[in-house]
Amino acid sequence: MAGEAQEKEKRKMKSAKKMRDIMTNYYIEAKTAGETGKKVAWITSGGPVEPLIAMDVIPVYPENHGAMIGASKMGGELCERAEELGYSGDICSYARSDIGCSLVDGGPIGGLPKPDMLICCNNICGTVLKWYEVQARYYDIPLFIFDTPFCHTEYADEAKKYVRKQIDEYTGFLEGVCGKKFDHDRIKEVGRLSVEGQQLWQEVLDTAMNKPSPMTCFDAFFFLALIVTLRGTQETIDFYRDLLEEMRGRVAEGISAIPNERYRLLWDNLPIWYRIKWLSEKFASHDACLVADTYTSAWCGSLKYMDENNFLDSMAEGYTRIYLNIGVDEMIKIVLEMVDKYDVDGFVMHSNRSCKPYSLGQYDIQRAVQREKGIPSLIIESHMVDERSFSESQTETRIDAFMEMIRQKK
Amino acid sequence: MEVLNDFYRVAENPYEYSRELKKSGKRIIGYFCSYTPEEIISASGVHPIRLFGTGGDITLADSHLQPYCCSLVRGALEEALEGRLDFLDGTVFPHTCDSIQRLSDIWRLNTNFGFFADVVLPVKLNTESSREYFADILKKFRLDLERGLGVTITDDKLKTAITRYNNIRRSLKALYEMHSKEPGILSGRDLWAVTRASMIMERDDLLVKLSLLKEALKKGGRSGKSEGKKRLVLAGSVCDHPNVYTIIEDSGGVVVWDDLCTGSRYFEGTIEENGNPVESIAARYAERLVCPAKHLSNTARGDNIVRIVKKHDAGGVVFLLLKFCDPHDFDYPYMKEFLDRENIPSMLLEVEDSLPSEAQLKTRFETFIHML
Ligand code: SF4
Ligand code: SF4
Ligand code: SF4
Questions:
Q1: Who among A137, A149, A165 is closest to B298 (CB)?
Q2: Using one digit for the tens of pLDDT, what is the confidence trace for A319-347?
Q3: What is the average per-residue pLDDT within A4-20?
Q4: Is residue A366 part of a domain?
Q5: Residue-range definition of the domain harbouring residue A100
Q6: Measured between CB atoms, does A242 come within 8 Å of chain B?
Q7: Tell me: the pLDDT tens digits for B126-157?
Q8: Does residue A92's CB lie within 6 angstroms of at least one atom of ligand 1?
Q9: Looking at the domain assignment, is residue B281 inside a domain?
Q10: What pLDDT, in 10s, does the model give residues A213-248?
Q11: Is A24 exposed, middle or buried (0-12, 13-18, 19+ CB in 10 A)?
Q12: Quick one: pLDDT at residue A2?
């Protein structure tokens, strides 16, 4: 059917190939760092990367790598390697697959480049602390812990002072490992680029406010990689500018992400990396578009605290007050805002056994959304990169029932 | 040893005891986790008690917490929602693991016990700025308590509390040491009751009872036999299952020391009595045996478990881990590896809501103990 193929072609994201190229080059550069004499740092996804970029250190994100492992359905096998070492099958599957991967240099890209240092920021969870301790023992390299006190109800003055001090300790740590002075001019530039990149990313996500939406959250999961791994670079800005243009062009031409968008949904928590395609097709078959999510917006959610003209100081607050480092009531507020902003008809929550800080509290969030907005919600359970734990038929039945409820309401 | 009955009464019926205490006019604050600066609560004149999970079924908490959350956290919420903690005048949450972190939010949004505070401790304890922050956050906690409870916490009161807690910790440690030397003087279950009751009983009263017990032990205690029993160390988060001790003893072993937050991690480390009180309290928490939810070094807990085994001449280690406890799950493989390197055998017992059947446990312990 020529018509259908054409339709599909029209809907395809043109920027996807460029994105793949950029990521491929990035991983090649990282994996050949030994030859170019550059240092490699492994860093947590919410960690302050800008000082690394300013020091010409190549940042590598085990979590991004974990997502790739999950998407290539290699998570189960690598997790098993970690379990053979005695790691419980209940801990975060990013950590398990990464620990497994270090042993065997497996996974879709044959393992990550060996790190010269580890940068662990606990603004996303306590798991990363334990995980990075494991890797610090395994590779026997220095570990810097950037400690961002949890903001249940406030960002206390005491915390402010403490985090600000650690920024100086962090730059001092980098000077030690890299054997050169920290470049205070360069960080200003990198900070500016980082803020601009985050703004553009937010604008890209905002295009999903259009009806029909030019993108789904599954697209956002894919395009997220750059703002995570390369924020603070010009390349990221150029890419997101083009992506934004593409999205706006799609809106102007009426190209929607899915063929018949009749229902709009909001996603919560990390993606189920090994079932992205399946889930997006499944929802599309119900004419439902997952237009937004709480996860990808975490990389621009603290823009309000960032000051590009005073980057190092404002970064302390920006990194401490990100989405996962706040109380459940604060998360509820943000979710309710998103329900209105993207005008959604339903809420899909991924109860992620891998991620306790994201998942514990979801039931309370779910009730608040039901109470305040009266929209149906669905909970899907999985371990985000361990495909062994996923039940497709059960999930399918639940999605069908959930969509039936939405249909009746609308 | 009649004095043991007092400990058992409190350890086995903590709520009943708390209600009685409340009737006598005491205000009571519940806390989670051994990183709670109890000394400051105690100095405020309010009585601190440690909250554990539940012995019963978990139903109400299921509508707030997924089943893949540890039983301690789910059980504690269950107790609150069931109304069994009606005697509380407040709760304090120190920041430790991801699960307690979210329990704090859920607790704050769904219960109402009056006073509520998060004590957002640093996650690392090995830098100057983190220790400074630790002290700053305890100073803030002192103010929070003063404001929230309408009391003044003077330096003098803090100093009295520090002395009180130093004495408690020293006494507990002394008991553990006497027991390690001569395990026959007390059963493991006795020692469990004593440490558990220590986190619940009125603390001055506790001190009196502890010294009575010490006297009784000097006279020989239970004068049980322990020759030929294999000496073991118990490691994990909490041990809320006294049967474990009994079954180990029935299987030919005896627990001579532990690395538990309801055991040695609770009493190790004394507080400097002559310095700035809050800063000294902070220093003790930063220096005490570290929990896996905090960072002291990459190998602190592995080194420590080996040290404990050697110091107490133990033949093996029993890891008692709660299912879904991330921090301990992450530490287990390397701690085991450190033990393996020293040829110290260990076994892992993972506990969900309740212990496996007694017969099953006995077989597992016997197999392990025979191997030693
Ligand atoms: S998925 Fe959750 S637990 Fe795992 S590293 Fe990310 S934030 Fe931490
Ligand atoms: S193991 Fe440590 S962090 Fe966990 S509850 Fe016990 S004292 Fe707290
Ligand atoms: S440290 Fe472990 S046992 Fe203690 S509350 Fe956290 S998850 Fe539960």
A1: A137
A2: 999 999 999 999 999 999 999 999 999 99
A3: 89
A4: no
A5: 11-182
A6: no
A7: 999 999 999 999 999 999 999 999 999 999 99
A8: yes
A9: no
A10: 999 999 999 999 999 999 999 999 999 999 999 999
A11: exposed
A12: 54
CATH number at residue B115: 3.40.50.11890
Q: Is B31 inside a domain boundary? A: yes
Residue A374 lies in a domain: no
**Which of B99, B122, B333 minimises the CB distance to A87?**
B333
| Enclosing domain of residue B96 | 2-153
Give the closest residue (by CA) to ligand 2 atom 1: B237
Tell me the two tokens of residue B196. Answer: 């558990």
The packing angle between helices A127-139 and B326-341, to 10°, is 20
Total domains, chain B? 1
Q: Is residue A207 part of a domain?
A: no
Of B86, B70, B110, whose CA–CA distance to B327 is shortest?
B70
**Domain with A153 in it: what CATH number?**
3.40.50.11890
How far apart are the C-alpha atoms of A313 and A307, rounded to whole Å? Answer: 8
Query: Please, are residues B262 and B191 in contact by the beta-carbon 8 Å criterion?
Result: no
| Low-confidence stretches of chain B (pLDDT beneath 70) | none
Q: Residue A165 falls within a domain, yes or no?
A: yes
- Across the interface, do A145 and B124 touch by the CB < 8 Å criterion? yes
Instruction: Indicate which residue's Cα is closest to atom 1 of ligand 1.
Output: A355
Residues 237..296 of B with a Cβ closer than 8 Å to A: which?
A: 292-293, 295
Q: And the tokens for A96?
A: 């398990």
Average pLDDT over residues A358-372: 98
Q: Which two tokens stand for residue B2?
A: 């009649």
**Global ipTM:** 0.96
- The helix (H) or strand (E) run that includes residue A139 is helix A127-139
